[in-house]
Amino acid sequence: MYRLLIVDDEPVIVNGLIQLFQENTEFELDVCKAYSAAQALSIAKKMKLDILVSDIRMPQKTGLQLVDEIAYYWPHCRIIFLTGYSEFDYVQAALRKSADNYILKTEGIDPIFRAVGEACHKLDEENSRRIREEKASMHFQIAAPVLKNERIRRMLKGEPAASLLADPRYEELDFRLNAEEPAFVVIGRIDNPEDLKPQEALESVQRAFHNNLPDSITCESSISDEHIVVWLLQPQAELLGRFLHPDPEAPAWKGFMAYMKGILELVQNECEGLLGASVSFGVSGDLSKGWETIRDQYSALLGALESRVSFGHKMIVIDIEQAHQEFSPESGQMKQEDMKSWVINQIQSFIQHHLSGDVSLTAIAEHVHFNPSYLSRYYKQMTGQNLQDYIQSKKLECALHLMQHTNLKLIEIAARVGFDSHSYFTTFFKKKMGVSPQEYRNSK
């Protein structure tokens, strides 16, 4: 499933396009929206983007400027410009940005559908090419960096990082991380398909990880055993600085971690498509605040991943705070069926309490620590119902309750069930009930 972001400073255009894409059965897309370049950048820092449909003329920052920022985080994102102005300078600028298409708003929806379809096709071709190259490279044996593995393993066992870095045994090795700067560890747990040898799976997952890791994050990796891979990572100061927040209570590290989870989602999707392998990830806190904590963090994350996998869960992404909060001694006593019910209850409770806010796949997946694509499949498998259908049924149920039992204005009810456009809410309601919200209220 690809993720499409629609950006325009005119909400009626954004909401109209979203509705049209959701109604078009030819596409299987996770459609997101933004009403400004700033909102679009905020989304880009939290989740992977595959296709961008953006207006060119917007306040503060144009679509042309936005593309440069999006490309920094997601260089493979396909770009489609949408504008009301047929001006030669804009066309030239769009071509220089390697845009896939330049569409006038006056041309209607069909050219936009075609452009998005072509973008999906190009993404499919690129993914197929990478899979072909990966399958070819799987025939070659890659020698494991034995000494690097050994040193990282000793770190994970709690030996002081400073003494290991100064150990003459490793003096010929290049350790690219600075122990004084922010750094973290990522654990990958691989659920191998039966037709793939463990060593081949490990090497392929490592290559997928490195292929999707931007140059602005330095990496040292190690293989712990036949289904565990460990990476020591360090973001460059320039990258970390992009996540600085004016609110001192919202440190840059938290924003960077959301971006990192987006990268891990990309790796998970590629490994599933390439190998048919499920990969789950655990992410530590900032090690520069105490490298001596690496052993305890590693143990906690590995225990959390093993616990979730034992309950039949796949494609997990969990950080150290979530691991400490969720996996208490009591959770270890839960039976598999109880855990399945608990996860479904968590999903439904989150939706119920966030109807007026963000109930996207990404937001729900973050809450239960699943990959967004896997979350959708898991919910359907466990309940027999599409997750999007459940969300819409809850929005409708809440709207009906508010109409019947309150005197709230329809525009207020629309906001409470997550519609920032009254016309969009009216269209949704009429499609579900056969009458408009006002007609329904008048009949009661």
Automatic annotation (TrEMBL):
Keyword annotations of the record: DNA-binding, Phosphoprotein, Transcription, Transcription regulation
Domain named HTH araC/xylS-type: residues: 345-443
PROSITE patterns attached to this UniProt entry: HTH_ARAC_FAMILY_1, HTH_ARAC_FAMILY_2, RESPONSE_REGULATORY
A Pfam family assignment: HTH_18
Residue numbers bearing the 4-aspartylphosphate modification: 55
Response regulatory domain location: 3-120
Keyword DNA-binding recorded: yes
PANTHER family: ARAC-FAMILY TRANSCRIPTIONAL REGULATOR, HTH-TYPE TRANSCRIPTIONAL ACTIVATOR RHAS
Protein name: DNA-binding response regulator
Organism in which the protein naturally occurs: Paenibacillus cineris
